[in-house]
Amino acid sequence: MAVATQPTLPTGQLTRAQVYAVHLRILGLRPTLAQAQFIMDTHRFRYMSGGEQGGKSLTLSACAVLKRYEDKERFGKGRYWLIGSDYGETESEFNYIRDFLKKCLLYKDSTKRVDPGEIRETDGTVWETKSGMDSRKLSKFSPNGIVLCEPGQMDVLTFQKALFRVGANRGWVLGGGTLEGSLGWWPKLIQSYLWGTADTKSFIIPSTSNTYKYPGGATDPEILRMKEQSSDQWFQERIMGVPCPPAGLVFPEFRPDVHVRDVSFDPSYPVELTIDPGVQGAYAVEAVQTIGDQDIYFDEVYENGMVTEDIITICQQKPWWKNVKAGVVDVAGTYRQGAMPPVSQVWLDKAGLYLSGQKVPILDGIEALKTFLKVNPKDERPKMVVSPKCVGLLSEFGVAPCPLKGPLNGQTAAYRWKMDKEGNVVGDEPEDKFNHAIKAVIYRIVDKYGYTRSKGSDYATIMSF
Fold first, then answer.
1. How big is the chain by its Cα radius of gyration, in Å?
2. Residues sharing a CB contact under 8 Å with residue 271, sequence separation 6 or more, in sequence order
3. 285: which strand partners?
């Protein structure tokens, strides 16, 4: 569509919806209902999970350009980033945004490549591509807006840096992509914000909503063919854009966007170790520091096929070993390796570390950990945060693949309730597997802070009648 003059944002004349309608027309777009809902939303942080051919990149790019129009009154010229797990992931959005700017007569020039790439507008505004593989380049400047291209391919730290970088300018972040399985931070984030908060909302745009590609919608012959020839989980994730996380998670409260942080060892604070000497599963050692009002789980040793002496050797080679001052162990598990002396004695003899501990009832321990996952409503901080280096612990929470050697490697191995064939929870205790790191965390919480409710409270309730 030919455009005679550069469009500007009318003020006091048209409603926001009318302004957006005019600009979408200039861009040559007629969005579907699902796409329009994402574009027209007003949340500062918007995330989209889309099915194959749902129009994610087109929608994301159009929304970014329209946001740029709104920013002109606030910032004048600005700076915007397109971030992918690598530069290649930014290519679709880079090309769409460049073409849209040409239609708006805002385009000046651009690089031919995206590794890195740059689009320059006539007023000096710059759009830059960034790679999550080079986090150093995410520390310069404070962009006015960021587009996350296929966030499911990038790590949660890249996402968190994006949120931090727009803070100074009170900028915005838009993200959209397909689900690469339902583990990890991205599917969890989509689920967490479907109902929206004050500034954040997520959307699901299924393939079936793109009636330009699939005129019949959910009953389009091609959609029906894919549904028939694929598994239910694959169809839900890749076509409908719906996360299918492990069913029956014991700790669904654990959220990667809240509880996972880029934390590291601080040599000015003591280190505590909390240990579950698993034999059939993993031998888990979680390293933690208490800083202020938070427990910081910054590293771990999570191995299978090793005895206590091997684990101690690994720990002693860590840079934080010299700061280890205390430890907690599973009392019931100290004899699991079938030989004397018990595990706690081996740690004392070989490492000079005394380990405390007490027997922890399963349900009481679960309740204790759940309280630590709660977010303080005053400052939106949980009582505990976990480093991405603690992959074993994250895998048991169901947000990362299992890191153990053997057939479980890369698979879903999360701590779950017992389930029947229909997916219903049965019994009142979880399956006793994929929980070694979680149990280690529970031992320390109970040993250091006690229970959130009295042990034997059920008995006390009965006796009160």
1. 26
2. 265, 287, 288, 289, 320, 321, 323, 324, 325
3. 275, 301
CA distance 90 to 99: 14
Among 262, 323, 330, CA closest to 287: 323
Identify the DSSP state of 342: P
- CA proximity to 196, closest of 45, 54, 60: 45
Whether 180 has a pLDDT exceeding 60, the answer reads yes
pLDDT band at 442 (very low <50, low <70, confident <90, very high): very high
The domains found in the chain, sorted by start residue, are 16-238 (3.40.50.300), 256-460 (3.30.420.280)
CA atoms within 13 A on the CB side of 31: 25
Contact 93, 64 (CB under 8 A): yes
pLDDT tens digit string along 313-362?
999 999 999 999 999 998 764 444 444 468 999 999 999 999 998 889 99
pLDDT by residue (tens digit) across 351-364?
999 999 888 999 99
